[in-house]
């Protein structure tokens, strides 16, 4: 099989590389010449564990190609994935101009039957727009070429994307013809060896599945954050409650960890977009609106604890932050809770010294020199009045607390991810604050 993947962002790059890994001939296309040149030399625009080696390996094997020439790549293709960005507009709805421009480009160049698949997260109804765009482009050329559109949402997690792609829980594909179903089944066959299903459905349902999945997960998190906050007030321990409810298989143990709010490029954007789509169609998504407002408030919880601890006056205090990215194993700073916390600390007249194993270069784009970037996690805590654990990177889980205590001015830790044991921290002489746990 021969496929094209248009858009070498996070989704496109992982998708293209993983298809090449199982032996399929893949061309990844982007309009950004520099990005393509870099990729040909093994330089990636994103950080994702294991991806760099996989790209190099498949480029060397001659299965993975990078190009700016959509017209060439699309010729004789069995499947073309559209994986370009859908940036949120001012009002939160996804902007489809890039998706539709690619559809047009494909229509202007395709020369035989192919399945055109939307892979980017797109609102319900987008595949139908893609089909119209293709029909128009073919009409202008005055040619008649058969094609199908399909919707194939992705469920990759940043930091675990390769594993998620190679060993998926499920693959969801929206199609409107048996021919397209056959092509997509053949394409995904190498990934279904673990017995997990490929689920075919109509196109709007596949498009909706993506939003429903992310919204359900965001709801779990906001729900647990609400419960954690209430646990603190009522003298309960959310770790116990979490175990208590998680052992009910209907609830499950995953994704019920409270913290300082969900971030990243997906949950915030998709929750907003679904609320918007519903409103445009006369429906009020009440649960999701609450999910969003709980999350906004949760991003401020750690800051509020810091201020309370210091009696409301933070002027001149030096705060150390461990972690900047919205979660571990990524350098993604989009909608990261750290940004809200830092903004609030700076507004109160604090200085901030932060350390993140990967995200500091990315953080600099937004935060510039408003904070100090430490050379390691111990450097960050020198003379600090308090330490805030913002992202649960593995290296923060078991630090040498004797060294930390010696370096800090005040032995106070605010743990936004509940990664330490309250009793151990107290034995080590720290004042310890976390989320939803009696301390
Ligand atoms: C999410 C989904 O998990 C993927 O299935 C989906 O494909 C992806 O969005 C997407 O739409 O592209 P991702 O944003 O990479 O993936 O990150 P997650 O690992 O899901 O974490 C999201 C946020 O939830 C993080 O801020 C994390 O700290 C927070 N979280 C997660 C919690 O606060 N508690 C939990 O128990 C789990």
TrEMBL record:
InterPro entries: 6-PGluconate_DH-like_C_sf, NAD(P)-bd_dom_sf, UDP-Glc/GDP-Man, UDP-Glc/GDP-Man_DH_C, UDP-Glc/GDP-Man_DH_C_sf, UDP-Glc/GDP-Man_DH_dimer, UDP-Glc/GDP-Man_DH_N, UDPglc_DH_bac. Keywords: NAD, Oxidoreductase. Residues 320-422 form the UDP-glucose/GDP-mannose dehydrogenase C-terminal domain. It catalyses: UDP-alpha-D-glucose + 2 NAD(+) + H2O = UDP-alpha-D-glucuronate + 2 NADH + 3 H(+). Pfam families: UDPG_MGDP_dh, UDPG_MGDP_dh_C, UDPG_MGDP_dh_N. Its EC number is 1.1.1.22. Gene3D superfamilies: Cytochrome c1, transmembrane anchor, C-terminal, NAD(P)-binding Rossmann-like Domain. NCBIfam families: NDP-sugDHase. Belongs to the UDP-glucose/GDP-mannose dehydrogenase family. This is UDP-glucose 6-dehydrogenase. The lineage of its organism: Bacteria, Pseudomonadati, Bacteroidota, Cytophagia, Cytophagales.
């Amino acid at each position: 099989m021969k496929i094209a993947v248009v858009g070498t962002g996070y989704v496109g790059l992982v998708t293209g590389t993983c298809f090449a890994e199982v032996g399929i001939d893949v061309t990844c296309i982007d309009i950004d010449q520099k990005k393509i040149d870099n990729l040909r030399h093994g330089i990636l625009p994103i950080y994702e564990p294991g991806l760099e080696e996989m790209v190099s390996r498949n480029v060397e094997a001659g299965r993975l190609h990078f190009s700016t020439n959509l017209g060439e790549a699309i010729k004789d293709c069995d499947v073309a994935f559209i994986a370009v960005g859908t940036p949120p507009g001012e009002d939160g709805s996804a902007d489809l101009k890039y998706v539709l421009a690619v559809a047009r480009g494909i229509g202007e160049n395709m020369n035989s039957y192919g399945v055109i698949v939307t892979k980017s997260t797109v609102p319900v109804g987008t595949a139908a727009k893609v089909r119209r765009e293709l029909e128009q482009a073919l009409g202008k050329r005055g040619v008649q070429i058969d094609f199908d559109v399909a919707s194939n949402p992705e469920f990759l997690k940043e930091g675990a994307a390769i594993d998620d792609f190679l060993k998926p829980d499920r693959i969801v594909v929206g199609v409107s013809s048996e021919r397209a179903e056959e092509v997509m089944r053949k394409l995904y066959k190498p990934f279904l060896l673990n017995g997990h299903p490929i689920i075919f459905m109509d196109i709007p349902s596949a498009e909706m599945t993506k939003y429903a999945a992310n919204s359900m997960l965001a709801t779990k998190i906001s729900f647990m954050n609400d419960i954690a906050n209430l646990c603190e007030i009522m003298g309960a321990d959310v770790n116990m409650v979490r175990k208590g409810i998680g052992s009910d298989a209907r609830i499950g143990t995953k994704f019920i960890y409270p913290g300082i709010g969900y971030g990243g490029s997906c949950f915030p954007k998709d929750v907003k977009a679904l609320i918007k789509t519903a409103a445009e169609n006369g429906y009020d998504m009440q649960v999701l609106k609450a999910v969003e407002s709980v999350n906004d408030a949760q991003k401020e919880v750690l800051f509020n604890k810091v201020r309370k601890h210091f009696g409301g006056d933070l002027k001149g205090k030096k705060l150390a932050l461990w972690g900047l990215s919205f979660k571990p194993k990524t350098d993604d700073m989009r909608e990261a809770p750290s940004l809200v916390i830092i903004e609030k600390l700076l507004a109160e007249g604090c200085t901030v010294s932060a350390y993140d194993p990967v995200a500091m270069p990315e953080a600099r784009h937004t935060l510039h020199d408003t904070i100090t970037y430490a050379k390691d996690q111990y450097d960050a805590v020198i003379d600090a009045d308090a330490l805030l654990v913002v992202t649960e990177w593995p290296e923060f889980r078991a630090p040498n607390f004797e060294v930390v205590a010696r370096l800090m001015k005040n032995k106070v830790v605010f743990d936004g991810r509940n990664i330490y044991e309250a009793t151990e921290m107290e034995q080590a002489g720290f004042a310890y604050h976390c989320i939803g746990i009696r301390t």
